[in-house]
Amino acid sequence: MFCTLYCTPMSDTLQHVSWHLRHACPFRQGTAVDDFSKAFDATAELRFIDDVGAGDVFGDIVVTGVSYSSEGRWPSSGFRISDAVAPVGDLAAARRTCGQCPANAFPAGRMAGCCEFLSVDPGDPEMEAALRAAIHGGLADEFAAAFPRTDPLWYGLWISDPLSPAQLRLLPRLLPASITAGGTGLRQFRRACELAAEHGIEMRVHMPPPGHVDFGFETTFPHCPRCKRATGETWYGESNQMTTCKTCGQQFIPAATASSEECNFELSDLKERLSAEEYAAVSKAWQERHASEPDPMGQPFMW
Asked: What would the DSSP string read from start to end of 56-125?
């Protein structure tokens, strides 16, 4: 039996909101300035350096994934810190670059806070209650002028892309940092809105349609093309009749919004990045450092 952590997922996709500040830097060049996926990939290793913890850093090498089989476990994906920070020279220079960047919404000392996800369930009752409380607490007129009204309200916040200056000013007041839903990602987003408004930086946002990933295929469920709310129909869509979205009022044909296509998830193979000697040393050090941790392959394999 063989399994790799971070392997191809088999589940319904989360309707998280992706956002990024449209800002060029030594790490984000070309399409990485405008495209979220490119921006996220271009800066992901910088975030890993801060997030992965000392347990998976071995000198210049960061281990980001582990493979398991009946014969054991070993580091399978990772990168060199020196490669990740090469555009500016070294790690200290990378921290200075991000520390001085007007698009870095992370607290001081952390890198690459210019793009992230908001992992909030669109129907989360806590978030809906907080939004309604904020609106009824004195923001009703501003909200009506800035955002289309939807039910739940969360869907209406991400219809416009990029966010307008009025939306940037209003969102931090609508999304209190004390809300449990969204966690630290919500605080980072609020700060990003403030930075975008302060420095005149464009903020791009996107909520993906509902779907499912399974065995290398990504299926998109029938959904409203405007607010991305699922219709509740079967995966491939059966209705070819014009319908009206109950959330935002958009008219659309459900079957026309469903699709299924092959998708690939590529991992950074650590063996390909290191020499045989380097990989053997890192693998040995990883085994020794994690020797006391339980092996998931020793547990029943659940499907």
From this structure: GEETTEEEEEEEEETTEEEEEEEEEHHHHTTTTSSHHHHHHHHHT-TT--SPTT----SEEEE---TT-H
- What is the three-class DSSP state of 6? coil
Q: Are 260 and 213 in contact (CB under 8 A)?
A: no
- Whether this prediction's pTM lies above 0.90 is answered by no
Quick one: which H or E segment has residue 140?
helix 140-146
Give CA–CA dist 254/197, Å, rounded.
37
pLDDT in tens, 147-187: 999 999 999 999 999 999 999 999 999 987 666 665 668 99
At 64, give phi and psi (nearest 5°): -115, -10
Which residue type occupies 240? N
Question: For every residue of 203-253, which 3-state class applies, written as one string?
Answer: EEEECCCCEEEECCEEEECCECCCCCCECCCCCCCCCCCCEECCCCCCEEC
Transcribe 260-285 into DSSP letters.
EEE------BHHHHS-HHHHHHHHHH
